[in-house]
Amino acid sequence: MNKLLKTMSFILVGILAVESIFASEVNLYTSRHYDTDDALYEDFTSETGIKVNIISGKGKALMQRIRSEGKNSPADIFITVDAANLWKLQKDGFFQSISSDRIQESVPSNLRGPNNEWVALAKRSRVIFYNPKKISKMQIRKLSYEDLADSKWRGKIAIRSSNNIYNQSLVASLIANHGIEETEKWAKGFVANFSRKPQGNDRAQIIAVANGEAEIAIANSYYFGLMLSGKKGLEQKKSAQKVSMHFPSQTGRGTHINISGAGILKNAPNSSNATKLLEYLLTNKAQKHIVNNTYEYPVISVVRPNKVMSQFGRNFKEDQTSVSEYGKLNPDAVRLMDRVGWK
Ligand SMILES: [Fe+2]
What we know:
Layout: H1 2-21, E1 25-30, H2 37-48, E2 51-56, H3 59-69, E3 77-81, H4 83-91, E4 95-96, H5 101-106, E5 119-130, H6 137-141, E6 157-158, H7 165-192, H8 202-210, E7 216-220, H9 221-229, H10 234-241, E8 244-246, E9 257-265, H11 271-281, H12 284-294, H13 307-310, H14 324-328, H15 330-339
Parallel strand pairs: 1-2, 1-3, 6-7
Antiparallel strand pairs: 3-9, 4-9, 5-7, 5-8, 5-9
Helix pairs in contact: 7-15, 8-10, 9-10
The structure holds fe (ii) ion (FE2).
């Protein structure tokens, strides 16, 4: 009996030792700058026992780090914003195909990378903000991105610089739908309509409309939610309250959609845990948490956007252009913006 107990305890110690060598963990590199994401990772750990080691930083710096660490990188998952960033890493062979039926079933194909090497975790639209005192609902109702090249908007539009990837992806989506030549013609007219030299971030464009420096601005939808929620301070909340949001191109192609997304690294040491974490981030529970804290749109259709966002329309028409086009056409977009003098 004593011998049996001894043998059993040896086996138990052995199992524990093996377990501690293969500690259940996943290494996440993320450029999403939301503290609220941490609560998600903690919840994932409490559900699965898998520890999430987070390295956060700017997208460009993390991408550089992944490149320089190469095969020895401990990174399992890279999370970032804008599909064009994910495309850049995929192009250079840093990702592996994500094999999960659950992910493929829940994420529409236009929001996944080629060969399923990255997937959307949340959506954002790049929309028009306008001063409702200067522009009527009737005037704005049918407004598309394409219309913004019309000379009637001369000196009235605020948008950030062309080195911003959100703008590059917007232009890439126009190239995907109209070709380079037509998009270049459009961009010439559009740039001629700028109210000022491009400056500041997306929120600064919304503020420009509130201050009367522009009548129209283009910025990402969730910044408006953040401003209205008061999370960016009272001053910005007051600015946002003076401004209205419009989904462009509702009678045509639909409003431009971009993503927050993730890929699993080719040499991920914990790739099955990585798949589990991505599956978790696409559950109803996690999607609800994301939309309620960052004001992005859910990828899962049963989850509703946050109320702050849905007051402007819940079922707007989304452009179905594959977000992988943004990366493919990024060099064309950058060159085109340069040629038309978009600073
Ligand atoms: Fe952003």
